Amino acid sequence: MEAAFFDLDKTVIAKASMLAFGRRFFKEGMITRRSLIRSVYAQMVYRYLGANERRLLKLRESVLSVTEGWEQSIVTRIVSEGLTEIVEPLLFREAVDLIEVHKEAGRKVYLVSASPSEIVEQLGGMLGVDGVIASKPSIDASGKYTGEMDFYAYGPYKATAIVELAKREGIELADSFAYSDSYTDLPMLESVGHPFAVNPDKVLAKMAKERGWQSLEFKERVLLSDPSRRAQPLIVALAISTAVGVAATVAGVFIRANRQA
Questions:
Q1: CATH number of 3-260
Q2: Active site includes 9?
Q3: Interval 94-121: pLDDT, tens
Q4: Catalytic residue among 7, 97, 185, 201
Q5: Which of the residues in the chain have pLDDT under 70?
């Protein structure tokens, strides 16, 4: 069995998913105006400077400190209510099409993200993927966040989780695919036979070139309700059993997207 693993932020969607809900949490009275401004600033930094280990660890600590004491059920509700309005407009058409291509080819598809499971699982359900690997905040007996993390789906931990999942599901990683924008996901990309750099940061772009990995640019947005979003039957029919096949499929998806733009 083969699989395709997609990073989330700046690979499937255009910005950091766990920061996108800042305004909604502010309206619900869960964060202060100062925290909201910091969230907006963090989004700008992430958008224009990209992710690196220091920024991601700082973001993690900031989010954990802010969310301590929040009720998980309330967060889940807010995400559910805002998913279509907040996250869906951030979806990259190319990512959505490639997810469909892999599904039609009989591969299992997974989202792999450092964002919390409350967001990633619901987005995974929206996209119809087979499962997710996401960070899991620690929850106390009363259902509130403790300000700690049970599992942080970051860097090498993503790769470890992918390997464990592959063993459970009988997935052949050597024949599988992975997509990410950040060099921090190098272990994830190295864990599969067909890695792709998507909207890569400078470090990953350099590494991809040195290793002969393909780099892709995702830029078109799409709503899942858009009837034109689905990959054309001819493209879906193309087997992606080799890197050449993937390149042909990706090229076809990109050509179609550009014609519709």
A1: 3.40.50.1000
A2: yes
A3: 999 999 999 999 999 999 998 889 889 9
A4: 7
A5: 18, 22, 28-68, 227-261
Phi, psi of 6 (to 5 degrees): -110, 120
Sheet with 214-216, edge to edge strand ranges? 145-151, 131-139, 108-116, 3-7, 177-180, 194-198, 214-216
Q: From the candidates 9, 97, 185, 201, give the one annotated as an active-site residue.
A: 9
User: What is the residue type of 251?
Assistant: A
β-bridge partners, 137: 149
185 is catalytic: no
Domains of the chain by residue range: 3-260
